[in-house]
Amino acid sequence: MYIDSHCHLNFPELASQLPEILNAMQAAQVHQAVVICTTMEEFGAVKGLAAQYPHLWATVGVHPDNEGVHEPSLQELVNGASDPKVIAIGETGLDYYQMDERKGGRSVADLEWQRERFRTHIRAARQVQLPLVIHTRSASDDTIAILKEEGEQGGPGSAGGVFHCFTESMGVARAALDLGFYISFSGILTFKSAADLREVAKFVPDDRFLIETDSPYLAPVPYRGKTNNPSYVPFVAKQLAELRGCSANRIGELTTANFHRLFVRTTGQSTSDIA
Question: Does the pLDDT value for residue 269 go beyond 80?
Answer without folding.
Answer: no
